[in-house]
Amino acid sequence: MLGLMQNWPLTVDRILDHAANWHGDREIVSRSIEGPIVRTTYGEVRTRAKKLSNALKGLGVKPGDRVATLAWNTGRHIEAWYAIMGMGAVCHTLNPRLFAEQLCYIINHAEDKVIFTDLTFLPILKEHRASMPTVEHVVVMTDEAGMAEADFPGALCFETLVAGGGPDCVWGDFDENTASSLCYTSGTTGHPKGVLYSHRSNFIHTLVTLGVDVMNISARDTVLPVVPMFHANAWGLAFSCAAAGAKLVMPGQKLDGASVYELLETEGVTFSAAVPTVWLGLLTHMRENKLGLSTLKRVVIGGSAVPEAIVRGFRDEFGVDVTHAWGMTEMSPLGTLSSPTAKVAATDPETQLRYKLKQGRPPVGVEMKLENDAGERLPHDGTTFGRLMVKGPFIVDSYFKGDGGQILDDEGFFDTGDVATIDGDGYMQITDRAKDVIKSGGEWISTIEIENIAVGHEKAFLAAVIGAAHPKWDERPVLLVKLMPGVESTKEEFLAFLEGKIAKWWTPDDVVFVDDIPLGATGKIDKKLIRERMKGYVLPTAKAKETA
Ligand code: AMP
User: Fold this and answer.
1) Nearest ligand 1 atom to alpha carbon 430
2) What is the CATH code for 1-212?
3) Ligand 1 centroid to 308 CA: how many Å?
4) What is the band of 439 on the pLDDT scale with cuts at 50, 70, 90?
5) Which of 40, 256, 267, 337 is most open to solvent, judged by the fewest CB atoms within 10 Å of its CB?
6) What is the pTM of this model?
7) 3-class state of residue 29 by DSSP
């Protein structure tokens, strides 16, 4: 027997409709690409986004067409985002930190018809215009004055398009399973692959993110999404904030500690979300300038493991609560958060901190299991590690155009490529990427765990661990350390620091001090590049073995 409730398609235009109807004068504040701070409201954003949808129709964009954005977080980007999705086209967010060849590959693979771009990225587009045959129009997200600086033949002006678009545009009115947006994975192995979100998956993800143990965003919050709209669906914030009626503060292209700090304070931000490197920049800026935070209460940190020093720094020096989150583009992206259960909340602050450092527990809508290489389920005992597999209504079913083939197992679970433990309280902890984990004598060593401890050394700025070939053990860990400016250290100092904090057989066979630990396009340590740079490196223990 079927239920007798209304069939109200879960399409994301309804999220902005809700914001405009019920939180119409709530502000969206942006640090514009041109420089000044500009203000708009959810009400104005809807009006302008509808006009932009009409302008896109005028340019020949049809439902299902891919329309790309190459842009920082700003109010205009929000307008383009909803204008594209509302009319049934697919908003394809491009990551400007990718190499030009990868960008061209993605644009061609997606067959983007129009690209919205910030002034910042015009030179890249101009240089590679000839390699993007499907692109019919480039729209520069600026006004006529800004266009005067735009050296790009045939480029269209965002503000002129908005001004010329008719005000009435019917949004939605299509199946909730219609594609809304497209985001490519960072592609650390092979070509990037497209994750094609649907209106329904984004709508359900939005409802889940609003939960108190998830993002906990309310109409009273002022939210600064440092996490870019081009990375992993902006962790859902471009939808969640509108759904909750939270004030949005968009940082534009300035993500350094001083610029983020200025917005946090001047706009009264209560909640923010970013990768660990951004927070390191902010903490350093505040310490160097002896600054405090007057309104910020909570930050969500994810994208890579949060170092203990960041959680402690925020808690003890600035009174800010950190929630550690794990997820991936393929999961829309939220998978787990380290919010306390009743049992954990009843423990002392130090015990709570141990749980905060884990990636956390899944919200409703995310199923998880751990498996070994033979496909057998592993126990949730907090020590056994295995492949982390996930399933749910906002998790990828297959990649765009079938890349990668069948990606779900017989039970419908997606292999995240992460290796993890799950403890008896349901807290998941990532121990590695499957391709980074070190296999030593048939056992696995977690590179992330060693890195997290090593980076807690006061002289360490960044740390990375990779496996190096060993004649007896197959692989042994090497610790690479980028030191704080102007300090010196020794291998022995770091090994002594690790002693007692990790199993003895996990102790790196060598410590190498480096000038640079490269970060990839989404702010994660680029182990592929490190491995390339370390080609030819031989472990001292392996050398000893060879000469023995
Ligand atoms: P992306 O799709 O670019 O967001 O990358 C997703 C991957 O980032 C995950 O599969 C993890 O390997 C890594 N990741 C995300 N969040 C965390 C976290 N909190 N701790 C450790 N790794 C993380």
Assistant:
1) 21
2) 3.40.50.12780
3) 17
4) confident
5) 256
6) 0.90
7) strand
